[in-house]
Design goal:
Length: 163
């Protein structure tokens, strides 16, 4: 089963995870998302799908949009070899997502549990974050703690690093 936005909404409801969502026009970049009117008290996250130098390890990085990303420093923090962006083919293979749709909810599609979720240890569990529900025509708002609990329950490896 591949999780689309409606099945993600159903899963969150079934798990009694409080969330809200906003439907909007398709967005393909952080700049386009910034142009939409989003709740002021929420943290919009940018999401990157990364791989190590030999392509044997994959990471989904999700951090507040304003967080600068230093891939060399991140590799060191993760104890990984050099990191680079993973290809669209790898994104499809592991998360069943297309470019422009990278989201932590894509980890629900990773049945092999091959992808490690990475985020900032400075993001408090109570922070309300905004992420796509595997579809760039909506944004889901939930607490970072609820996302981490869901990923843990689904046995997704999570690494929180200094960013």
């Amino acid at each position: 089963m591949s999780f689309d936005k409606n099945s993600i909404y159903a899963l969150l409801n079934n798990k009694h995870i409080h969330f809200k969502y906003i439907e909007h026009r398709p967005v393909y970049s952080m700049e386009e998302l910034d142009a939409l009117e989003m709740p002021a008290d929420a943290v919009i996250c940018k999401n990157l799908f990364l791989r190590n130098s030999n392509g044997k390890q994959h990471f989904l990085l999700s951090v507040p949009a304003a967080t600068p990303i230093d891939l060399k420093q991140l590799a060191t923090s993760l104890g990984s070899s050099r990191l680079s962006f993973a290809s669209a083919e790898r994104l499809e293979k592991y998360l069943r997502l297309q470019s422009g749709l990278v989201s932590p909810f894509g980890l629900l599609n990773d049945t092999s549990k091959s992808v490690i979720f990475v985020s900032s240890k400075n993001l408090p569990p109570s922070a309300i974050i905004g992420i796509h529900p595997n579809d760039n025509t909506a944004t889901v708002w939930l607490t970072f703690g609820d996302l981490l609990a869901l990923l843990s329950e689904l046995q997704v490896e999570v690494k929180l690093v200094e960013m």
